[in-house]
Specification:
Elements lengths: L2 H20 L3 H4 L4 H10 L1 H14 L6
Helix pairs in contact: 1-3, 1-4, 3-4
Length: 64
Amino acid sequence: MKLKEVLEFLVSYYGWEGLGDRIAINCFLSNPSMGSSLKFLRRTPWAREKVEKLYVASVPDFKK
């Protein structure tokens, strides 16, 4: 699964505000956009890991 698909799911499920509440990083809190968030997450391994863990926890039927 691609990072873009993961982020699209999380934004549709929680919204930007809800996502920012769960993972407090500026790309979700201050003028969030798909492009800027993807750019940040691709360059920041610790943030990407948090997003991936939230995705796994949010999808009950997640299969690796």
